[in-house]
Protein 1
Amino acid sequence: MRKNIVAGNWKMNKNLQEGIALAKELNEILAADKPNCDVVICTPFIHLASVTPLVDANLIGVGAENCADKVSGAYTGEVSAEMVASTGAKYVILGHSERRAYYHETPEILKEKVKLALANGLTPIFCIGEVLEEREAGKQNEVVYAQLAGSLYDLSAEDFSKIILAYEPVWAIGTGKTATAEQAQEIHAYIRSTIADKYGKEVAENTSILYGGSCKPSNAKELFANKDVDGGLIGGAALKAADFKGIIDAFK
Ligand code: PGA
């Protein structure tokens, strides 16, 4: 059966000392009150090697927010999937809408990143989602299908099964505007149906599809109660241990 997962995306927040403090605090809170779902924190690259050994791997998985689309070599400033894995991190967010919009990551580039992440034993948390104009034009299904097909649907069923998806409507990210539980369920069900068409029902049923976009303790329960919503990818509310724990507790 697919897993319920709450993953934090710290984005470009917290210096090293602050990041270490947050990871420690979260680890303590979860050790005292065990989560009923998988918990992941995705941190800036420079935090990974310090944070990974600090947290109990049975309670918290650690991931990066990106990795390079190249194996190694003369790519100044880039960080490879192998380097991420060498810190002990197990996950990597790929295709976040901020990377697509600000760093021009195309489906082809993301396809390479996914391949390299998988080759290095990392679990990709692959993000898809439409912008407001696409939602208003009723094109959200078309958009997420193109994102899935463009980067993932060349994978073997075995490799696809290693991926976690995150549906994040761009209009809901950091805006305080959340998709309604109905909107989330509707598109998550659609995403699962396209996976079933491509890889069969069993793979589709086993794929965790997270919701992201202004998820907080007050709305997490209603969102996660939907049959095709398997948890959340959390930005702003992952920066305070108490808020993040409040979202994790939606599964209690
Ligand atoms: P948010 O971000 O929770 O701050 O809206 C979610 C994300 O971008 O992953």
Protein 2
Amino acid sequence: MTNVYIISAPSGSGKSTLVNSVRKIIPGLDFSISYTTRPPRGDEQNGREYFFVQRAEFEQMLRNDEFLEHAEVFGNCYGTARRFLREAEQRGHDLLLDIDVQGAEQIKRKITDAVSIFILPPNRQELETRLRHRSLDAENVIQTRLVTATREIENYAKYDYILVNDRLEDSIEALKSILLAERLNRSGDRNSAAAADTLARAECWRLSNVRERLQPILASFVPEGAMDTKRK
Ligand code: ADP
Ligand code: 5GP
């Protein structure tokens, strides 16, 4: 049976970096390439990062009921084509979806056992640094992304796992453990020492086990003075 994994994160958290890394090391994992009406960025290529389409084509796909989910993000339309799930099922592979919070909610309603993972940066300052280092966006876009990040982060508790992307190598290992642990849970093949180790590593990132660790990260996104105003 196909496991569906949803990954969401504020832009700049390192989601693409992590997803690209685990795709190379986990066999049998398909990646859904979304359709979007936004123009390509940097060296993005049609059919690699996204299928770039005009709004009319997107709307025609919507009318044809070709999307499993779709949403408007930063003024552009994004959607996951149903065919990616169909093809993963035919191949007996799992499927990874890189989608936003609205899309994650739609998928969870349709595929109740989909596993959702939210990636967080270690703090707001580091997110800003990463957005700048990536040097893909103009300054006003970076500012918009930071404001949006604060709003997106409020949704973290809707996800099954929260992964704080601090040291990259550790985060790749953590994401790998989560994906493999969910496979073990489904297969029931949990008895070996290796399986126990993977399950334990994944468990560290389950929502109920990270709540305390998240407090300083969440606090770094609250504008200065807002906490005092809230307390009054
Ligand atoms: P997203 O897909 O979430 O928008 P990216 O994967 O493009 O983010 O990462 C944003 C920037 O941060 C990139 O320049 C990337 O190389 C860098 N980055 C990703 N993960 C880390 C990390 N753990 N530590 C430092 N830099 C990172
Ligand atoms: P970007 O334009 O930076 O690549 O992506 C912007 C946001 O759109 C990200 O949060 C990304 O996860 C989300 N996104 C990408 N593809 C899809 C999709 O097919 N559906 C939904 N709902 N969101 C998507």
